[in-house]
Amino acid sequence: MMYSAKLTAAAALLSMSFIANAAPGIDLIANETPINTVKSPEAVAKIPAGFKFVEPGTLTVAVSILGSGPPFGLYARDNKTVIGSESDIARLVADGLGLKLKLVPTSWEDWPLGVTSGKYDAAIYNITVTHERKTKFDFATYRQDTLGFYVKADSKITSIKSAPDIAGKKIIVDSGTNQEAVLLAWDKENQTKGLPALQPIYVTDKAASTLAIQSGRAEATFGPNVAGAYQAKLNGKTKLVGIVPGGWPRSANIAVTLKKGNGLVDAVQASLNSAIANGSYLKVLDRWAESDEKIEHSEINPLGLGD
């Protein structure tokens, strides 16, 4: 399901705002220039014989625009070209495989069915490897996963790092995500101890999240730390009060997500490892301020949340 014209227009306006007010150290105009890499013979050789891509000679990838926002995805100044760290990673994968790249902005709810039904060859959507997801998808990792709690800049909340810290609080979190799973697990633990229940708040986009925090409707947001850090640098209206491993209680990874068992994951992993080795991977992370979450090599279906 593609975004409606209304949502696309909203995303375009949001993107123009981000470009006009880019976070320190992030030059969004310069970041419109693609970072490419060389074709990897090893990766190409691992594409299963007779594999049928959605479009011949093309890697079709589901990505986010309005949902996750910068640094993951936004529109360039022309209001139609997708840029961001996720589209950059997708380009490296496609280049390594010797394929053209087609990016399809979609909703978080759409990518799972889109990948399993063959609508997309892959999803690159800040997706964390989890035990449940590995029953339906194959994963090739490309970044560590950390989650951050952010509050209003003048909030009296100074630390949210463990279950008791969320008791009775109103916290924005995206439905169906690993961060929601962490919050619900903490809330369950709190309730067995008689602590006040968490009040999760679900919003549809970043603009709604910002409004909820600034108006006091919510006390904190909990989501990908790189996105929270970007937003905090962008306007100075929020601050970090806690970081949690994405696979709490253990570490976790963000990964390219593919249909289970179709064999493409080996080729994607090889393409990612080629980009890591030749330096193009780190160039992508550096320009989106994500290098703190870099990995040394891509893994296939590692331990994740719930394992």
UniProtKB/TrEMBL annotation:
Gene3D superfamilies: Periplasmic binding protein-like II
Signal peptide (from-to): 1-22
Keyword Signal assigned: yes
Keywords on record: Signal
Pfam families in the record: SBP_bac_3 (PF00497)
Chain ranges of the Solute-binding protein family 3/N-terminal domain: 58-292
CDD domains, per database record: PBP2_MidA_like
SUPFAM superfamilies according to UniProt: Periplasmic binding protein-like II (SSF53850)
Domain of life: Bacteria
Family, similarity comment: Belongs to the bacterial solute-binding protein 3 family.
PANTHER family per record: ARGININE-BINDING EXTRACELLULAR PROTEIN ARTP, MEMBRANE-BOUND LYTIC MUREIN TRANSGLYCOSYLASE F
Name of the protein in its database record: ABC transporter substrate-binding protein
Organism placement in taxonomy: Bacteria, Pseudomonadati, Pseudomonadota, Gammaproteobacteria, Enterobacterales
